[in-house]
C-alpha cells in the first residue's frame, strides 16, 4: 500500500506547528518557568531551542523524509546492520508516556470548556477557583471521563487519517489561538500588580543558574515543547516528499513555538502575582490563574469559552502527533490497519492515563521518582530522560554515521556557512551539551 503524504509543504508545516504548539507552551511552560525562577530559565530555554532544539529538529525531520518510515523503521532502514532501532523503541515508549498524562491534562481543559459553556464556571466558587480545581482533579471518576473523551477525539482523527482533518483544523485554529493569546496578554499586563509578574519573567535572577536542575529543566522543556526526539517530527517528516525544502520550515516551527511560550508567560505571570498565587505551585498553575482572569474581565465568560476551545484544539493537534508514532509503527511492523492500531493504542493509553488521574487524588501518595506523583514521574522520564537520549542519538547518527556530504544533503543544506554551523552544532556542540547537562543532573540527584 502507498504511504500517505501531505498535500503540500504548508500542510506539513501546519501539522508540525500544531504538534509543537500545545499544552507545553501554556500549561507546562508556565509552571516549569515558575518553579525554576522565571527570567533566567527563559533565557536558558531560548538558548536550548536555538543551539540544540532547532538544529535537532532539522535532523529528525530529515531522517524521516529520507527513510519514509515510522521511527523504528527509519532507524532500521538507514542503519540495517546495527541496533540503532532500539532508540526507536525508546521513542515509541516516550510518546505513550507523554500521551498518558497529556490526555489527562487536556481533559481538564475540556472540563473547563464545558463548565464555561454551561455557565457553571462563571460563578466564583465560595472557596475560590484553586480549591475547587484541586477537588475536581482529585475525584475518582469525573476527570477520567474527560480524559477518555479527549482520547476518543484524538483517536477518531488519527483513525480517519492525518491528512484531511488536521491540516484544515490547524489552519483555522492556530491563528485564532494566536489572536486570543495576544488579546489576553494585553489584558493581563493591565492588571494591578502586573509589573511584578513581568519582572519575574523578564528580569533574570541569575543566582538560580547555580542549580544544575535549572539547566536540565530548560533542556527538557525545549525538547517537550518542540515535540523533539521521539519520532513525532520524524513520522511527520516521513509523509513529506523528497522535493520539499526543510531548513526554512524547521526554523519557522521553532520560532512559532517559542513565541507562543513567551506570550503565554506574559498572560500567566502578571495574573499569578496579581492574585497572590505561588509561581512554583506546579502543574495546576494555569488552571487556577486563568479562571481568575476571566472572572475579572468583562465578557470573561465568552472569552473563556473561546480560550478553552482553542486550548483544547491546540492539545488535540499535539496529541494526534503523539498517537501517530505508535500507530505508524504498528501499521508497518505488525501490519495492522490504521483503524485497529489507533484503537489498540488508544485503549492502552486510556488505561495508563487512568493511573495518572488517580495519582492526582486517591493515589497521590504514589511517588515513583523522588517526591513526584505519577504524572510528574512520567513527565520526568519522558521529557527529561528519554527525549534528550533519543535526541542525542539522532544527532550522533547524522553527525557521525553519515558523512558530512550525506548529512548536509539529507537536510537540504549547502556546504556554506549556514550548513557548516549546523553541522558543527549537531556533530559536537549539541551532543556535548546534552551529555554535560544530563550527567550533571544524574550526579546531583
Ligand atoms: N510539543 C507539544 C506541546 O508543547 O504541547 C507536546 C508534545 C507533542 C511533546 C509531541 C512531544 C511530542 F512528541
Ligand atoms: Na510546544
UniProtKB/TrEMBL annotation:
GO CC entries: membrane
Keywords associated with the record: Membrane, Transmembrane, Transmembrane helix, Transport
Superkingdom to which the source organism belongs: Bacteria
Subcellular compartments: Membrane
InterPro entries: Na/ntran_symport, SNS_sf, YocR/YhdH-like
Source organism of the structure: Gracilibacillus ureilyticus
PROSITE patterns assigned to the protein according to its UniProt record, in alphabetical order: NA_NEUROTRAN_SYMP_3
Alphabetical list of Pfam families matching this protein: SNF
Membrane topology according to the record: Multi-pass membrane protein
Protein name: Neurotransmitter:Na+ symporter, NSS family
Principal location: membrane
Keyword set includes ATP-binding: no
Transmembrane intervals: 12-30, 42-63, 84-114, 144-162, 174-193, 213-236, 248-273, 293-320, 341-360, 380-402, 422-443
Amino acid at each position: 500500500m502507498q504511504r500517505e503524504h501531505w498535500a503540500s509543504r504548508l500542510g506539513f508545516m501546519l501539522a508540525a506547528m500544531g504538534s509543537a504548539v500545545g499544552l507545553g507552551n501554556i500549561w507546562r511552560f508556565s509552571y516549569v518557568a515558575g518553579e525554576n525562577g522565571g527570567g533566567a530559565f527563559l533565557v536558558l530555554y531560548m538558548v536550548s531551542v536555538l543551539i540544540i532544539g532547532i538544529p535537532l529538529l532539522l535532523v529528525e525531520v530529515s531522517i524521516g523524509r529520507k527513510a519514509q518510515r515510522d521511527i523504528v523503521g527509519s532507524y532500521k532502514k538507514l542503519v540495517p546492520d546495527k541496533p540503532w532501532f532500539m532508540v526507536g523503541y525508546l521513542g515509541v515508549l516516550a510518546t505513550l508516556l507523554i500521551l498518558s498524562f497529556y490526555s489527562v491534562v487536556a481533559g481538564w481543559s475540556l472540563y473547563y470548556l464545558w463548565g464555561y459553556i454551561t455557565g457553571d464556571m462563571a460563578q466564583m466558587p465560595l472557596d475560590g477557583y484553586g480549591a475547587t480545581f484541586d477537588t475536581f482533579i482529585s475525584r475518582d471518576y469525573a476527570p477520567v471521563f474527560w480524559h477518555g473523551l479527549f482520547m476518543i477525539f484524538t483517536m477518531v482523527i488519527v483513525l480517519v487519517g492525518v491528512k484531511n482533518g488536521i491540516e484544515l483544523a490547524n489552519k483555522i485554529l492556530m491563528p485564532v489561538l494566536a489572536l486570543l493569546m495576544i488579546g489576553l496578554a494585553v489584558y493581563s499586563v493591565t492588571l494591578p500588580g502586573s509589573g511584578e509578574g513581568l519582572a519575574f519573567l523578564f528580569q533574570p535572577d541569575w543566582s538560580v543558574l547555580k542549580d544544575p536542575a535549572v539547566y536540565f529543566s530548560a533542556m527538557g522543556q525545549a525538547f517537550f515543547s518542540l515535540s523533539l526526539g521521539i519520532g513525532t517530527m520524524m513520522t511527520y517528516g516521513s509523509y513529506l516528499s523528497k522535493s520539499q525544502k526543510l531548513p526554512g520550515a524547521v526554523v519557522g516551527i521553532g520560532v512559532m513555538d517559542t513565541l507562543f511560550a513567551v506570550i503565554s508567560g506574559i498572560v500567566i505571570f502578571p495574573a499569578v502575582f496579581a492574585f497572590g498565587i505561588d509561581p512554583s505551585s506546579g502543574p495546576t498553575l494555569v488552571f487556577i490563574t486563568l479562571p481568575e482572569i476571566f472572572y475579572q474581565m468583562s465578557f470573561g465568560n465568552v472569552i473563556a469559552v473561546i480560550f478553552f476551545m482553542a486550548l483544547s484544539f491546540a492539545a488535540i493537534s499535539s496529541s494526534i502527533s503523539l498517537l501517530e508514532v505508535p500507530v505508524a509503527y504498528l501499521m508497518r511492523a505488525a501490519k495492522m490497519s490504521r483503524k485497529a492500531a489507533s484503537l489498540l493504542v488508544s485503549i492502552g493509553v486510556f488505561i495508563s492515563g487512568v493511573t495518572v488521574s488517580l495519582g492526582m487524588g486517591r493515589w497521590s501518595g504514589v511517588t515513583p521518582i523522588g517526591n513526584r506523583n505519577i504524572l510528574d514521574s512520567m513527565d520526568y522520564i519522558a521529557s527529561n530522560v528519554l527525549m534528550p537520549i533519543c535526541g542525542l542519538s539522532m544527532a550522533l547518527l547524522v553527525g557521525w554515521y553519515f558523512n558530512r556530504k550525506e548529512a548536509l544533503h539529507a537536510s537540504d543544506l549547502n556546504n556554506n556557512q549556514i550548513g557548516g554551523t549546523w553541522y558543527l552544532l549537531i556533530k559536537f556542540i549539541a551532543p556535548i551539551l546534552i551529555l554535560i547537562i544530563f550527567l550533571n543532573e544524574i550526579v546531583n540527584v
